[in-house]
Amino acid sequence: MKYFALFFLIITSQFTFAQEPSKTKFKKNSRDLTSDVNVFLGSSGDHGQLSPAASYPFSMLSIGPQTYPNLHAGYEHSAKQFLGFTHNRFEGVGCTGSGGNLMIKPYLGNDPAKGELIKSKEQASPGYYSVGFENKMTAEMVVYKNQGMHRYRMPQGEKGFAIDLGYAFNGAFVAEEHQVQNNAITGMIASKTTCGAGVYRIYYLIEFSKPVKFQSAGDHKFNAVPNAADTELEIKVSFSSTSIDYAKRTLSKLSFDQLKEESKRGWNSHLNRIVVKGDKEREKLFYSLLYRTIQSPYQISEIDGTYKAIDGSTQKAEGIKYNGWAIWDNYRTQLPLLSIAYPERYQDIAGSIANLYTYGKKDYATKFEPSPTVRTEHAVVVVLDAIRKGYKINTGKIIDSLIKEVDHLDYGAPDKALESSYDAWALSEILSIMGKKDAADKYKQKALEYKNYWNKDFKDITKSDVDRMQARKLYQGTIWQYRWFVPFDVKGLTELIGGEKTYLEQLDYFFKNDLYNHANEPDLQVPLMYNTTPQAWKSQKLMHNYAVDTVVQYYFNDNSRGIDPFVDRIYKNTDKAYIRTMDDDAGAMSAWFVLTAAGISPACVGWPVYYLNVPLFETVTFNWENGKSLNIKVQNFSDKNLYIKEVSLNGKKLDRNWITQKEIMDGGTLDITATDQPQENKNAWISDINRKAVQ
């Protein structure tokens, strides 16, 4: 891939922005889609764990409000009391969140403790956040790449800014170093990653636009006191994963309004990769969710390729390096979506995942992470998936580490056995691609052992605990939900169940009795599993229903089965967007909707195949930097026409309900004719451990 530095004529400094894939130019004929994004979606209660913080695609800097009481992302939409503003958050992830570093609280008077902040109004859009308080103070934030700015308007009189360098979500602070010079503070902050598994470090610069006096206020705390006559003041902030020097270089001379305009331009460029046309309210929901899918992973390398690896060493790379992973959560939705919509980024994203093996990858996190991160299980599956989609991965460099990881997988619990078998299969396929037949056969046989585990724990569905959360030491799921998790060999799974007839009967029972749990990922692929049979129409209906219709859900993401079910739409464009307890999980759940809305969903991560459903819009267009586009058009579009009658690609009829990555990326026109009558699926694609090619 070819990359270059992006310059704007309005830049007056000699600084060059951190590298970014190719052009992010907002084309003249593009739509302004930022106005369709509701950044408050999922920001109340336990309905997504999202924040309206000012952010930028794939940037680790996000400046946003910290409210009381604290939630995962630091913000509760219904709360009126503000604690201040923090500068990063890994949104929608489990445990109790990650981030919340570098707290800044504006206050009036001479005592920060008495300077209460009560919200009176707020508004936000991609890249921008503003709030007004009852004390007549207003605060605005903007983020563009890894730099941002606060802008405050305050009454005349005594005032100040309480700065807490030791603040982090849920007491995750570890250490900090800082230096005060003139109107600026520079330093390093170390905090625990999600679930406290590892430690990340960020380097920063904060600089006030007017003279301030810094007063020590205790451990890791300062008060910055400006002139009492000052009524408008700005604070510049920049982040780096590498060093304080790079954080300084990141800061440009752009004004607040210029940063806001460039951030909007960048967001529009990213959002216009997928253009949908249909119901206006549904369009707004679509773009609000697409916005969530491109928050992470985070770009951590500098313009010259310098970055910090996960062992703490300083490295130099070609292209861009990313970090901030939630692979167990989003490898089957968000990462496949990025591979289609942002291929120029995905080459480096996939390469960054592979690069973890070079520097001591852990399932969760190391003690030297360059950004907040969550977990990396199934990375070997993502590596295989990238290879088969045509992305270049140097497997020779990491194969020993891949083997070592798979050799030490956990088979101790029923769900772990199935998940580990998936990774063993992925390794066997990579070895086969490399021409290492004997080793490939070894790990294929290891993967086939899933049958023994499945027969032992998942075959008998008459036992009393099969619908009980965490029975038999399962992780966040039931026997019913995990028994379908053999994505790499559904053909073999069908045979274990007793053949296609019994397979269909048990799938029908699963959904008829509301055993499916869309609040979490363990059975997220199950609505697609009718696609392997002549009854693919059932999957088409389920995908539509779970995306935009009222459904019944008894299971929640707090490992409970509710006495009373959730009965509503799962995806709503409101602050209480998702099922109670449902996390967005770093774009996993929002990407599920985006893919479903586009009519394509991964059949098996590790194979470049996507099942089709009727899109949620009359037209969906993917636009790419190479000038190609894929126009998906629905004939006979209606929310009553849930089933696919006919499919053609570039005028040629496809006698199948699936499409490949190559067919998507080659572009053209995909015509889907919809109907209200179920249609028999005649040429099903089914994963098979003995399969050698897509067809």
From TrEMBL:
Residues annotated as domain Glycosyl hydrolase family 92 N-terminal: 37-241
Q: Which cofactor does it need?
A: Ca(2+)
Q: What's an example GO cellular component term for this entry?
A: cytosol
User: What keywords tag this UniProt record?
Assistant: Calcium, Hydrolase, Signal
GO annotation, biological process: carbohydrate metabolic process; glycoprotein catabolic process
Q: Which Pfam families does the record match to this protein?
A: Glyco_hydro_92 (PF07971), Glyco_hydro_92N (PF17678)
Q: Which InterPro entries does this one have?
A: 6-hairpin_glycosidase_sf (IPR008928), GH-type_carb-bd (IPR014718), GH92_N (IPR041371), Glyco_hydro_92 (IPR012939), PNGase (IPR050883)
Q: Name one GO molecular function term.
A: carbohydrate binding
Which SUPFAM superfamilies has this protein been placed in? Six-hairpin glycosidases
Q: Where is the secretion signal located?
A: 1-18
List each copy of the Glycosyl hydrolase family domain by range. 249-562, 566-673
On subunit structure and binding partners, the annotation says: Monomer.
By what name is this protein known? Glycoside hydrolase family 92 protein
What organism, scientifically named, is this protein from?
A: Pedobacter frigoris
